[in-house]
């Protein structure tokens, strides 16, 4: 068991090989958003991507999440080639392994903050009591428990961001992307 844990810590949790995303492939307006990206991200590692607008940061995150399909190259999650996953496998991967805090938050305006936060566990089939307890704990931890009954449009930008963080943490993801 100890060797298995050591292997998990020394192997990248996420890895790309020659990852390319090309918009408008073969057309006059062809744009290379990613052009041969090789990365390795290890467990418990913090990685910061920075660069000017349009440099491919969001495209890389969306590719790692399986939201954006790569034109070519490979993406590995714990050694499994995610590039070959079917859509339902990608959804399950995101649901069980990854959390994302979108730049625009993507909170559902017709739902309360509390309903937005519990949503990932509803999709995962968790029982009502455990998901409500977890949501209340996260909302409290991020100082917005008193905003739980409001809709996202009635919150400040910072409160919306904290609600999005709570939602991203609901399923205890191994990987958190922001």
Biggest pleated sheet: 4 strands, antiparallel
Stretches where pLDDT is under 50 for at least 5 consecutive residues are none
Strand order in the largest sheet: 2-1-3-4
Order of helices and strands: HEEHEEHEHHHE
Gap from first CA to last CA: 32 Å
Nearest-integer average pLDDT: 90
- Gross morphology: globular
Number of strands: 6
Instruction: Specify Rg, calculated over alpha carbons.
Output: 18 Å
Question: Any key phrases for this structure?
Answer:
about 180 residues, alpha+beta, 4-stranded antiparallel sheet, two-stranded parallel ribbon, about 20% strand
Provide an overview of this structure.
- The chain is α+β, with helices and mostly antiparallel strands.
- The chain has helices at 2-10, 57-65, 87-97, 113-123, 128-141, 157-169; strands at residues 14-23, 31-41, 72-77, 80-81, 98-100, 175-177.
- The chain contains six helices and six strands.
- The chain has a four-stranded antiparallel β-sheet with strand order 2-1-3-4, covered by helices on one side. Strands 5-6 form a two-stranded parallel sheet.
- Strand 3 (72-77) and strand 4 form a beta hairpin.
- Helix 4 (113-123) runs parallel beside helix 6.
Which helices and strands, and how do they pair?
Blueprint: H1 2-10, E1 14-23, E2 31-41, H2 57-65, E3 72-77, E4 80-81, H3 87-97, E5 98-100, H4 113-123, H5 128-141, H6 157-169, E6 175-177
Parallel strand pairs: 5-6
Antiparallel strand pairs: 1-2, 1-3, 3-4
Helix pairs in contact: 4-5, 4-6
